[in-house]
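One thing: mind reviewing this one?
=====
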Amino acid sequence: MATEYKTAFSQGFTDTIDKLIEQTQTLYLNDEVPWVVGYSGGKDSTSALQLVWYALSKLPSKKRIKPVYVISTDTLVENPIVALWVTKSLEMMEIAATEQKLPITTHRLFPEVQDRFWVNLIGRGYPAPRPKFRWCTSRLKINPSNRFINEVIRKSGQVILVLGSRKTESITRAANMEKYEKTSSRELLATNGALPNSWIYTPLADWTNDDVWMYVTQVDNPWGYDNKALLNMYRGATESGECPLVVDTSTPSCGDSRFGCYVCTMVKKDKSMQAMIQNDEEKQWMLPLMNLRNQWLDIKEDRKHRDFRRMNGNLQIFKDRLIHGPYKQSYREKLLIAVLNAQKTMQEIAPIKPFQLITPAELEEIRRIWLMEKHEIEDNLPKIYKKVTGKDYSSKNSQQQQIFRAEDINSLKEICQQDGDEENILFQLTRELLDIEQQHRIMVRRAGLYDALDKAIERNTFNTIKEAQSFALKRDKARNETKI
């Protein structure tokens, strides 16, 4: 038997929306605490922002004093269709808010260069994100938003966050929302467990997917963007290419479409991008992005591409096997080639101009990490860039010029090569020792030189994974016996 379909509009669509707008107005006028509205370009954040927009527009102009900041975080690896939608939406919001004399400003946020996806994957060698090592979310999404929110708190003392979160999204989401609602001392506002001096307002808390669609398709977008185009974007990202009216829980909803980063490895497949390409020939230009993700970011097969040592050089055992660490130099260089090749193709075929997968600032940071932190004195990034793009690599940092001659490096590799040492660990150790000494030579004080040399020697003790694993197993066994 079909489950009864529930809606937030059981008391009437118009009356429900009017009461929600009145409630939003009351909250806005209650105090002088500024508002920050999270906007992703999706249906939920669009609905939440529309409610706030209409609530403000229906207030007398003299009461529209408190600032409302609309923030949108661009991870720089977003689905390009959605990224373009958000960009144009924010531009139209800024114009409309000025024309309508509303205290609304838009803010496009980006992760710091050192936190960006390609910098950490290709530069530091972080393996593609996975459930037990989801390093991307905080760096790409949470940190940029928190920096902005904390700055508002610093200036104003408090902040109210308006989010499009809904309890029907998941059991976990519902539990979290109810938890912070109960601990709040303010009516209609939940406490924020992540940021002190901040409150959360979720006007869509009890809405379903189809309540959202009913609202965005029946109410005009106040900043002049076409909500029907939003529906079409979701429809295009749905495998069936349809968005049916939901009448019970057995009916699939268009709202199940999920947009996110095209590099996301937290899902088996990027179904939304795959559906976009499948449903619309004009979007087949995104194929290189999907192929880049599917061919190069396979978390099930990447163990062979990773160092047997952790990032800090430690050896760690789990179920009698070494836990592998960052990507090896050879694979990081292949990843860079793949990204640059994909970017070259996209710049030729993508309708979005100019199209950029990896920025010059990110390339510069990757090069710095390879040279200064990983001591890869070969300085291969400029050579890779030249080979793929046909253009000379230009660097703003004069300190990153290659010090060691290529012929000397090749000779050193040959001298250090030993049978059974596929990674040429002895060469890695020698070049690191040489580079550490060189880096300390230009310092006023050479403090820390010997400690750095000791750590380098310790990190490069073992020539093979077999030797390292045998040592780590014996070490852990001895530790366990000592505890007994």
